[in-house]
Structures are given as structure tokens and as C-alpha cells.
Amino acid sequence: MKVLSNEEGFLALPEQDLTTYANARYVIQQIPYEHTSSYLEGSAKGPAAIVSASHFVEFYDEELDQETYRQCGIATLPALDFQGKVDADAVALIEQQTSKLLADGKYVISLGAEHTVTNGFV
Fold first, then answer.
1. Cβ distance 6 to 13 under 8 Å?
2. Are 28 and 10 in contact (CB under 8 A)?
3. What does the H/E/C string look like for the chain?
4. 12: left (phi over 0), alpha (psi -120 to 50) or beta
5. How many CA atoms lie within 13 Å of 40's alpha carbon, on the beta-carbon side?
6. Do 54 and 46 contact (CB within 8 A), yes or no?
7. What is the pLDDT of residues 35-87, one digit of tens each?
8. Half-sphere exposure of 82 (CA within 13 A, CB side)
9. For the chain, does the N or the C end have fewer beta carbons within 10 angstroms?
10. How large is the C-alpha radius of gyration of the chain?
11. pTM of structure
């Protein structure tokens, strides 16, 4: 499965081998879906903004006295492409990717802002 480079991915981890799909136990799934916003638009930008902001997070966990990501690895997937997909088709796309990740034994962290995306995850 295609993943973002370690410099582009969640936390911008320095070790490339810990950001590959094969080696990562955790996978960041970006879901920039926006179709039913009732007030302000912009939720589609949320996942990329979270990944970008994560580049400024400290790796060291004082409570665990370690850099936990080294124990598990984190791969960041490119954002799902919803072009031409809305409603049931968008939910089906999310469900397909999520099911594949779970079948591969990954712990999935899904980033999305519109409430509709939850249906695809569940």
C-alpha cells in the first residue's frame, strides 16, 4: 500500500523503516470528505492540517520514559480521493479502505471532520 514519505507523514518520523506499511503497526488514514457541511466549509482540510501540525510534536513520552513510536512504527496513507463520490459511494470507499487495513492487522487512526465519515469506519 502506498504511504507518504517519512518527512510528509504523521510526526515526520526520522526513521524511514518505521514509516513503511509493512513495518508499521499503526496507520494514519486521512479522510478529507466534505459534502454535507451545514454551516462553514473547510472540514476537508482537517486531516492534512492535523498531519502537518504533528510535525511539531515531541517524540519523548515522560511517563513511559521512551519514544513509543519506535516500538510500533506509524505509516501515513495519502488522503482518500473522493472525486465523483458522495453519500453512499463515499461511505463505501471509506469502508473498503478501513476493512483492508484491519484485515492487514493494522491499528487504524482515522482523521476526518465530517460526521458522515464515521459510518465508513464503523
1. yes
2. yes
3. CCCCCCCCCHHHCCCHHHCCCCCCCEEEEECCCCCCCCCCCCHHHHHHHHHHHHHHCCCCECCCCECCHHHHCEEECCCCCCCCCCHHHHHHHHHHHHHHHHHCCCEEEEECCCCCHHHHHC
4. left
5. 5
6. no
7. 877 777 888 999 999 999 999 999 999 999 999 999 999 999 999 999 999 99
8. 21
9. C
10. 15
11. 0.92
Record the cell numbers describing residue 76, joined without a space.
501515513
Maximum Cα–Cα distance across the chain:
47
Task: Pull the grid cell for residue 103.
Answer: 484485515
* End-to-end Cα distance, the chain: 21
CB 78 within 8 A of CB 2: yes
